[in-house]
Amino acid sequence: MRALGGLALSLLVVLALARPAPADEIVTKSGSKYSGKIVEETNDHVKIRTKFGGVMTVKRADIASITREVSKSDEFRARLAKIDPGDSAALWELARWCRVEGLGAEFQEAAKKVIAVEPDHAEARKALGHVRYQDRWVTRSEAEKLERAALEAEMKSKGMVQYKGRWVSEADVEKLKQGLIQHEGRWITKEEKGYLDKGYVRYEGEWVTREEKDNREKGLYRVGRKWVSEKDADQFHSEWDTAWQIQGTGFTVRSNAPIQYINSQKEFIAGMMKAMHAFCLGRTPGQDLPIHIYKTIGEYNAVQPMVQTEGFPSPMYYAYHSASIGGVFKYTEPAFVATFKFDTKFYQYLFLGHGIGEAYLWNVLGRDSAIEPWFLLGPGHYYGFSQLGAVIFNVSHVQQQLGENYIPLSTLLGTHELSQSEDWNTRFYYQSAALIYLLLKDPRYAGTFRKARAEIFKLADARKARQEVLGTGEITETLKKHFDPKELETSLKALLASRQPIPDEVKEE
Fold first, then answer.
1. DSSP assignment of 163-199, as one string?
2. Fewer C-beta within 10 Å: the chain N or C terminus?
3. What does the H/E/C string look like for 29-59?
4. So where are the chain's domains?
5. Which CATH topology does 19-67 take?
6. DSSP per residue, 281-338
């Protein structure tokens, strides 16, 4: 019966649309009839717009009668006046008539009178867009609001917070801010997710196919289409033209050094990448950082003849300094270049950390940006010391940092070119690392420094989107908005004087 009722109602709507619309009518004394809409009346004449669109003017003296249209709205009022205000059934019938006649506002009025008399009238409620929520009728927007409030109360009772439209634990918020993704119960970077989606697996710090993993576990390495021993693979890759190509997360290593030596570097490189990912608040370089390690200085000079070698305490070189420690910083590739082997683990960690940190930041902030050296060099040096587990001030060439050899904070923050003095550079490296350490680890500064970095990276993102770059001094000026330079300098001097150890870790608090 309900289905037939709905069909009948639909048929009524069709019939209502098919029948002629009511109109005004003028009948003249001669018998002529004009139907349409009266648009003007005076003592002398009446104008009527006919159904054909034209306007006819009829003299008042010639008119026998005028029949005026009764509007559906007027009819609604007349019908409503005859209904007992407490008769919900009659009111609902009137509401249905309004719906058939296309009287939207009148339908709403009649339906609301129905539920005022009979609050649980389901048809009227549904017609008005109401829904049942628990034990009462509410509008859809009210129901959605109540459901959101109930969900919010439930999630908060479980210790959850809302982050970008999702309910997550407070611990997960920090991971999400770093751009990490949850995969099979662990947090990974977008780059790692990309490799996993391609079917790659992690093995000894690099991404390989499952076939390669199975063979590597047997001590075999791919050379062309063959799988050969480690000794034969090292021999094949000993020339730069056939050098090893190692794929890590966010970096590639090209080297003609023995594979065991390359493997010894991968863990440190991966740690540096992870540390810089945290420092940059989840931002990535946008491409794999290329790292080259040459077997000999001669091979290095043959491939990178423009890189100067003077002033370095060990046989390692930077291709991203525009080939000069004393020049204005400029990014070029590869991101880091070194010769095999490093003289000491100290230099290996210090300068490899320096190289990765600088290349990472340069790609995040914009390669052509003017980046202050303290911000560019400090993170890589700090994390290099951290992974080494070294005491930052326990080496001989840094013992003179205090007194007249101390670099004033204003100079440290404002310098855009490094002096040719090796001693000055060494002190600059250590003081910039100490400054970053202070800002990251000291509870007085750590939270504020995070906000300052967020502002710096947001500014860089906006500039890159407009194909612009950071200007000279913008990073330092952002820092100064958050910190008192005099107070910061007092704290930095105290840290330098204490010769406090750098923790053997890379986690940022």
1. ETTEEEEHHHHHHHHTT-EEETTEEE-HHHHHHHHTT
2. N
3. CCCCEEEEEEEEECCCEEEEEECCCCEEEEE
4. 19-67, 72-128, 245-498
5. SH3 type barrels. (2.30.30)
6. TT---SSPEEEEEESSHHHHHHH-TTS--TT-SSSEE-SSBTT-TTSB-B--SSSEEE
- Of the segments 60-74, 194-208, 233-247, which one has the largest average pLDDT value? 233-247
Average pLDDT over residues 189-201: 86
What is the rounded distance in angstroms from the CA atom of residue 170 to the CA atom of residue 149?
A: 19
Q: Which neighbouring-strand residues pair with 163?
A: 166
- Look up residue 312 and give its two tokens: 């370095």
Residue-wise pLDDT tens digits, 218-271: 999 989 889 999 999 999 999 888 999 988 888 888 888 889 888 888 888 888
Q: Quick check: helix, strand or coil at residue 461?
A: helix
What sign results for the dihedral spanned by CA atoms 484, 486, 491, 493? positive
d(CA 180, CA 187): 6
What are 327-366's pLDDT values in tens digits? 344 455 555 555 555 445 666 666 677 778 888 888 888 8
Tell whether omega for the bond before 305 is within 30 degrees of 0, i.e. cis: no
- Label residue 86 exposed, middle or buried (CB < 10 Å: 0-12, 13-18, 19+): exposed
Q: Does 1.10.357 match the CATH number of domain 245-498? A: no
Name the one residue in this structure whose structure tokens are 């043959």: 302
Distant-in-sequence, close-in-space partners of 240: CB < 8 Å, separation ≥ 6 = 256, 294, 299, 303
- The terminus-to-terminus CA distance of the chain in angstroms comes to 70
pTM: 0.59
Does the fold of domain 245-498 match that of domain 19-67? Answer: no
| Cα–Cα distance list, 502 to 384, 407, 409, 509 (Å) | 10, 20, 20, 14
